[in-house]
Amino acid sequence: MATAEPRSILQRRPGKSNVLECGVCEDVFGLQGDKVPRLLLCGHTLCHDCLTRLPLHGRAIRCPFDRQMTEIGDSGVWGLKKNFALLELLERLQFGRESPGALLCDVSMDTEKETTVHCDEIEDHLATIYCTVCSTNLCAECAQSTHNTRTLAKHKLVPLHERPREKPMCPLHQTHAIEFACLEESCLCNPLMCYVCKDYGKHQGHKDYGKHQGHKHTLIENDAEQVRVSIIDTLQHVKGFLDEVSDSARRLGNAIQQMEGCSRTVENEHGFTHTEQIHGTAEEAHVHGMAEEVRICIRRYFQGKQTNKQTNRNVLMSPQMHGTAEEVRICICRCMEQQKRLASACAVHGTAEEARVRVRRYFQDLHETLHRQENAALSVVDTHVREKLCSLKQQQEDMAVVVSQVTTICLECEKMLQQDDHKILLAKQEIRSLLDTVRKQQQQFCDLPEQLNMDAGIPLTFTKI
């Protein structure tokens, strides 16, 4: 998935700071990747790459400009909010550079002009009717007054929005309308021509595109219709593609929420969504749960081992037993067996007090070992969670960029469908390039399921020692 080329969007001005540049590395921000702008708590914006290089102070990083601290969670700098105002501006600059000339940008202006056409008879009135014979724009009053004779009443009057599109005039032969499009590879950038250009001008010698093979000319209506058909066909497939990407992005968001906050977004049978808390079973030996559940499970596991050791120690150190004679005999036998095992393991010799001291030291060492093992296990879990969150959020950002870019392209292509034939043909190459970009992104998304892992579960297994 292509990212914006920062240097091609903006030109650096030596000696001046640019609001679209990172204040640390002085590189222009990007729409995704290492140069995505992210906000600190103090309000300053740095690129993702520079944020990852800032030293950690516990669970916080310090702003290099005002020294204010910003806390970060398990996901690291990925959890910091992106500066969407800058991203929107960057996206506009990038798309403005890649759009088909100025044609796509003029669509809204052309629509506005069509809604504000003035009457050819009385300029203060807005035209609502068009005469196909007179080729005039008229208001209702003027249309009735100018066409009330028997001869003029035969003229065809149509609503203004149904008037036939006017053919543009040839820039080289201004008295002739553009009627043909050249299909030669060398003429794709400017294929429009009148019959003079076709027969006597720069397109002379290019063959006609008619009933015979090898012809290189066609009517602009036919060529424009083919372009419209290709746009419509692509848009129909793209709508389903956008739904798939949006659904995958939503499921990625749920997986991230489950790992970070033990919650998920659930859709009911009526199509409404709500957030609910998730509770797992941390008592099982094989756990597939969220990060916090796994941490709790690890702590309980090591607490249980400490409790068992403490119980054995209390039994050994307590000479008083209560119960029936049989129960006392059983307890004595168990105590003697435990003392034998402890004696063989610790090789304790000496007075009773020395034995107690050695027992305490032995179990103290066990406690310290368990504590170290617990910290090491929690560290492994935190590292796994951090890496998995980074991967999920990167995939989520990539999908958001794809949805934004494809949606923008689709909207512009839908607007182009309403344009004149000659405008569509002038933008033909750029439209094809945009549609090819959409197809490539669709193909890349189809290859993602093999790499995409949306499971929020963290596999954990305790082995008996």
From TrEMBL:
Family annotation (CDD domains): Bbox2_TRIM23_C-IX_rpt1 (cd19773), Bbox2_TRIM23_C-IX_rpt2 (cd19774), mRING-HC-C3HC3D_TRIM23_C-IX (cd16645)
Gene3D superfamilies, A to Z: 4.10.830.40, Classic Zinc Finger (3.30.160.60), Zinc/RING finger domain, C3HC4 (zinc finger) (3.30.40.10)
Keyword S-adenosyl-L-methionine listed: no
B box-type domain sequence ranges: 114-160
Catalytic activity: S-ubiquitinyl-[E2 ubiquitin-conjugating enzyme]-L-cysteine + [acceptor protein]-L-lysine = [E2 ubiquitin-conjugating enzyme]-L-cysteine + N(6)-ubiquitinyl-[acceptor protein]-L-lysine
SMART domains per UniProt: BBC, BBOX, RING
E.C. no: 2.3.2.27
Domain RING-type: 22-67
GO molecular function terms listed in the Swiss-Prot or TrEMBL record: GTP binding; ubiquitin protein ligase activity; zinc ion binding
UniProt similarity note: In the C-terminal section; belongs to the small GTPase superfamily. Arf family.
Protein's recorded name: RING-type E3 ubiquitin transferase
